[in-house]
Amino acid sequence: MDSRPLLIVDGANVVGSRPDGWWRDRAGAAARLRDALAPLADRGLPPELPPPVEVVLVVEGAAREVPGVVGVHTVPAPGSGDDAIVALVRDAPDRRRLVVTSDRKLRDRVAALGAELHGPRWLREHTHPTT
Prior knowledge:
36% of the residues lie in helices and 18% in strands. It is α/β, with parallel strands linked by helices. Strands 3-2-1-4-5 form a 5-stranded parallel sheet, sandwiched between helices. β4, α5 and β5 (116-118) form a beta-alpha-beta unit. The longest helix has 12 residues, at 26-37. The chain is globular, with a radius of gyration of 13 Å.
């Protein structure tokens, strides 16, 4: 059994939370988010989330082909990204699970399964402290 906390990031929701032109290159925006997440696997998010952390980025649509990198496992959602996130939370009942999204319906679904919730701003503060 893996004892590392599981950080699950709703890629489309987090990328879409900032009007920085992401819609012109969805895959590129997802890859930039993935790269920003990579250090969190070893660094964690102190003090809330000490390392090591398993980082999972759920990608969908035009970003579905974005590959994982060392430190970040990407999960291409075959349909709904929300359903893929719920399945990840459901499949790890004995682990600490943190989901990053601002989607209210998704938040309700994963909270009912015991996941902790954080919004995109919380994640940005840990990945881009100067922005």
